[in-house]
Automatic annotation (TrEMBL):
Alphabetized PROSITE patterns for the sequence: PROTEIN_KINASE_DOM
Keyword Cytoplasm: no
Highest taxon of the lineage: Eukaryota
InterPro entries from the UniProt entry: ANXUR1/2-like (IPR045272), Kinase-like_dom_sf (IPR011009), PP2-like (IPR025886), Prot_kinase_dom (IPR000719)
Pfam families in alphabetical order: PP2 (PF14299)
Keyword terms, alphabetized: Kinase, Transferase
Descriptive protein name: Protein kinase-like domain, Phloem protein 2-like protein
The keyword Kinase belongs to this UniProt entry's keyword annotation: yes
Protein kinase domain segment(s): 1-183
One function term, GO molecular function aspect: ATP binding
Cellular component aspect of the GO annotation: plasma membrane; plasmodesma
């Protein structure tokens, strides 16, 4: 039987079996079956080994409640229980264990008997199904509906590697256990999700699906809604997150009304009105309302927001600060935040083109999206650096950099002292501030006076407690300015991707301190001659309006606490910081980065 060659490496001499059973002494018989007596004995071998001599013998670890094969086809043995069995049983030969994993997936043993004879080993068929992505065809009926997709993929992938024909390609048992524990954790997340949701409410949502869907166990409903489904004749998309909170997207064709609508592409000109409600949303959850849109000048400025908006009952329009590009190319920006309650609420939002720009091109809306707010504490905990005895520091290289300091004498006696010294940083040539990051990559700060044109800016001396450079550069004379940056790459760590940040403060007496819209930045890289459009916000009070809160208390509330790219953050040294570019440092030498900033 050529298919038995799969198990040649598992053959064990008969003499070991004879010794373990005391020459098959009847005193060691513990049962019997269709293939003969079952003996007990002590062997220093893992379970599932196939033994051959003149006869064929199977060896399994003794199990007081019976062997696993009794339960393989039992549909009451849930997927999470099967995962726990695998995690607890990982001490076998890798190939054998892979076979057991496939048996657990398929709910059957790995061989077939016909007419009392072994007729087929199923492992080659199982491998083929995995390669051809048809594993679902051989799964135990009803098991797939219980599975988290990540858990299923992790489990089947490691099982397939275990039964690889090439022994060198099989994973080590430590890796198998790690992958199984990961698969179990993924499944436990799904199981825990079921405890957080109102499953009856989710059933009501699932029953409204368009087109209609069928489902069985509650876990199947969870899996369906984690992926998302359409309701309202396909005009509303409903899904849940891992906290069991509902996310809703309403299409523009359902919720947008107004004049001059081009309905084929959901394009809007002039005034537009949105009517949405809180149906299906989770109670007692704080939501952010987003609008998803695009416009014809997107290629020149993809993050620009060409409209302002307000609730129907509000007197003044608001302008959102930042738009985010979704993976499908559409833009989305925050409009409002509110807390959902059991009763249904209705919102009417009015949109108008922004007055301070030339707005001749069409722009389109995809819809309105309700997302649960993910809180992130604004209060930063103190940084706790755990210094390991053997720090990975290139001491000679850093020592040479420290010698470049002209104004201070830096001393250290241990690697730990050197690490903290470099983390804090120091002046080089009185105009560059050099430090290292937590992972010991070099960081460089350049004073504004070195890259802003003198005719547009003025530089004034300030106390050293207010600036590393004892100087501040103030007040542009126009609504745009150029940044011409030259950085010595020997002071950086190639190859690395560096983010470029603008450090600034807005004066209380400065008209820019009340600026609420985005700054649109065109970054012109002289080496590649291209423009990268971007939007950032310099206003430190740029917050999403909160529905249901009086105007005089909105400024003191901060539901919007998530970190968002393009929004400023307060540094420990009192300056504001906002990222405006990223550059890739590949080689040593010098680089030049020219940037143009324009206020919209």
């Amino acid at each position: 039987m050529s298919f038995m060659k799969e198990f040649d490496h598992l053959k064990i001499p008969m003499k070991d079996i004879v010794s373990a059973t005391n020459n098959f002494d009847r005193a060691n018989v513990i049962g019997g079956g269709g293939f003969g007596r079952v003996y007990k004995g002590d062997l220093s071998l893992p379970e599932g080994q196939m033994i051959t001599g003149d006869e064929m013998i199977l060896v399994y670890e003794y199990a007081s409640r019976g062997s696993l094969d009794r339960y393989l086809g039992d549909t009451s043995l849930a997927w999470i229980q099967r995962l726990k069995i695998c995690v607890g049983a990982a001490q076998s030969d890798v190939y054998s264990f892979g076979v057991v994993m496939f048996e657990i997936l398929c709910g059957r043993l790995c061989f077939e008997y016909r007419n009392g004879k072994l007729s087929e080993i199923l492992v080659p068929k199982w491998r083929k199904c995995y390669v051809e992505k048809s594993l679902d065809d051989i799964l135990l009926l009803g098991l797939k509906e219980q599975m988290d997709i990540g858990s299923y993929n992790s489990f089947s992938a490691i099982a397939f590697r275990c039964v690889n024909k090439d022994r060198e390609e099989r994973p080590m048992m430590a890796e198998i256990v790690k992958e199984l524990e990961f698969a179990l954790k993924q499944q436990e997340v799904l199981e825990n999700l079921g405890k957080k949701v109102d499953i009856e409410e989710l059933k009501r949502i699932a029953d409204l699906a368009a087109p209609p869907i069928s489902y069985g166990a509650p876990s199947q409903i969870l899996l369906l809604l984690l992926k998302g489904l359409f309701v309202d004749n396909g005009d509303t998309w409903i899904s849940i997150n891992m906290n069991g909170e509902v996310t809703k997207v309403v299409s523009a064709t359902k919720c947008f009304f107004g004049d001059n609508l081009v309905t084929m592409k959901e394009k809007r000109r002039g005034f537009a009105r949105v009517e949405v409600n809180t149906q299906f949303l989770s109670p007692h959850v704080t939501y952010t309302i987003y609008v998803v849109f695009n416009h014809s000048v997107q290629c020149e400025c993809p993050c620009y927001i060409p409209f302002e908006y307000k609730l129907e009952e509000e007197a003044h329009y608001s302008t959102s600060c930042i738009a985010y590009v979704k993976p499908n190319g559409w833009l989305m920006t925050k409009l409002y935040q509110f807390t959902s309650y059991k009763g249904q609420e209705n919102f009417t939002i009015e949109f108008m083109p922004r007055d301070n720009i030339s707005f001749e091109d069409e722009f389109g809306f995809e819809g309105i999206e309700f997302q649960p707010l993910e809180y992130e504490s604004c209060k930063k905990q103190e940084e706790k650096l755990k210094v390991v005895g053997n720090l990975d520091l290139e001491t000679t290289d850093f020592t040479e950099l420290i010698k470049l300091s002209k104004d201070v004498i830096l001393e250290w006696t241990t690697k730990e002292e050197l690490y903290f010294l470099l983390r804090k940083g120091f002046l080089i040539d009185k105009e560059k501030w050099l430090s290292i990051s937590k992972n010991m990559k070099k960081r460089l700060i350049l004073p504004a006076s070195t890259f802003l044109k003198d005719e547009e800016w003025t530089s004034n001396s300030i106390p050293c407690s207010d600036s590393r450079f004892n100087v501040v550069t103030k007040a542009p004379n126009s609504y745009s300015f150029m940044i011409d940056i030259k950085a010595d790459l020997q002071l950086l760590t190639p190859p690395s991707t560096y983010s470029c940040h603008l450090l600034y403060k807005l004066s209380d007496n400065d008209k820019y301190s009340s600026f609420e819209g985005p700054i649109v930045i065109g970054i012109i890289d002289g080496t590649r001659s291209h423009v990268i459009p971007l939007s950032i916000c310099l206003n430190t009070n740029c917050r999403t309006p909160i529905i249901g809160v009086k105007d005089d208390t909105k400024s003191s509330m901060s539901l919007n606490t998530c970190k968002m790219k393009g929004h400023p953050k307060l540094r420990k040294d009192g300056w504001m910081e906002v990222q405006f570019a990223e550059v890739v440092i590949c080689t040593t030498g010098a680089t030049k980065e020219a940037s143009t900033f324009r206020v919209s």
